[in-house]
Structures are given as C-alpha cells and as structure tokens.
Inverse folding.
C-alpha cells in the first residue's frame, strides 16, 4: 500500500499498546529503524509516522497509523509515543495523507 507520510515510516503493531498513546517497539519497528541506519537510542525524540496495514473496519485493506516519536521511560524502556489524538484509520483521513 502506497501511503504518503509526513515523516519517515516505521511499522507498529496496534496490539502492542503499553499505555494510552504508547506502543512497544516490535521486531518490524526495529527492522525499519535499522533500515534507516538508526537504533531506538539514536532515534530518541525523532518524528516518525507509524503504520500498520491490515483489513480495516469495512473489510477492505486500510492502514492504522499515527505520527509520533520514539520515547523512553524507566518503566517501559524505548517505545513509540503517539501524538495527541492517537492512531487513526487512513480511510478516515480526508486527504489520505498521514
């Protein structure tokens, strides 16, 4: 699925939610960071668009996504922190641009 994003794109797993607006960095996220030449430590505070492609509520291919950063806490370690508003389905964004 071709999605125009405002920031470099990283995979996220919507089932890896740790807390409100916080998602674990799963293997796909780490692989995408590595492809960008980064680690969770070097990407700390950097902006990304996190994307999970899957069947949406309508049964058609869609993408759940959010803009956010890589953050760190002593309790959670490194994680993806979604901007206020959290994740949205691409099909629900009027311009279809993340």
């Amino acid at each position: 699925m071709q999605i125009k994003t405002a920031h470099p794109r990283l995979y996220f797993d919507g089932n890896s939610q740790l807390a409100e607006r916080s998602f674990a960095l799963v293997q796909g996220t780490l692989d995408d960071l590595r492809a960008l030449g980064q680690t969770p430590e070097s990407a700390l505070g950097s902006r990304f668009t996190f994307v999970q492609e899957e069947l949406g509520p309508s049964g058609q291919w869609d993408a759940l996504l959010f803009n956010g950063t890589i953050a760190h806490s002593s309790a959670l370690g490194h994680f993806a922190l979604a901007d206020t508003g959290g994740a949205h389905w691409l099909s629900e964004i009027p311009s279809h641009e993340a």
